[in-house]
Design brief:
Blueprint: H1 21-31, H2 48-62, H3 80-87, H4 96-119
Length: about 120
């Protein structure tokens, strides 16, 4: 009788957006970098590092010049690109204008981060 190795398949992509802990660990094994989960904290409770990370993410994803990747697929479901916002505590954008609002919020976070860092 042949023995088979039992492996537990772990989901790497969170269906609600972003990567799961197993997905971040798999990325670290393959790429050698260490991803952190998205910042879900709101406003006044954010640390300086949280502001910098969330602001950078928002501008990098939704503040690109030119046309954004699709936010909806053929069946009108949000794409992985749009679902990323949920992993960072933002509403999933349905339109390009909504995505651009997330980017402007990110720019405001980065400005606030720079102001607070200059004071401390």
């Amino acid at each position: 009788m042949k023995k088979t190795k039992r492996t537990r398949v772990q989901k790497t992509k969170d269906p609600h957006g972003g990567l799961t802990a197993a997905g971040r660990a798999a990325f670290a094994r393959k790429q050698g970098s260490h991803l952190k989960p998205g910042v879900m904290t709101h406003g006044t409770k954010m640390t300086l590092d949280d502001m910098r990370r969330k602001g950078s993410w928002a501008v990098r994803f939704y503040g690109r010049s030119g046309k954004l990747p699709p936010l909806r697929d053929e069946s009108n479901k949000p794409t992985r690109f749009a679902l990323t916002a949920a992993a960072w505590g933002e509403p999933v954008p349905r339109t390009e204008a909504a995505a651009r609002r997330i980017a402007s919020k990110g720019r405001a976070l980065l400005r606030h981060y720079k102001e607070r860092k200059a004071v401390s």
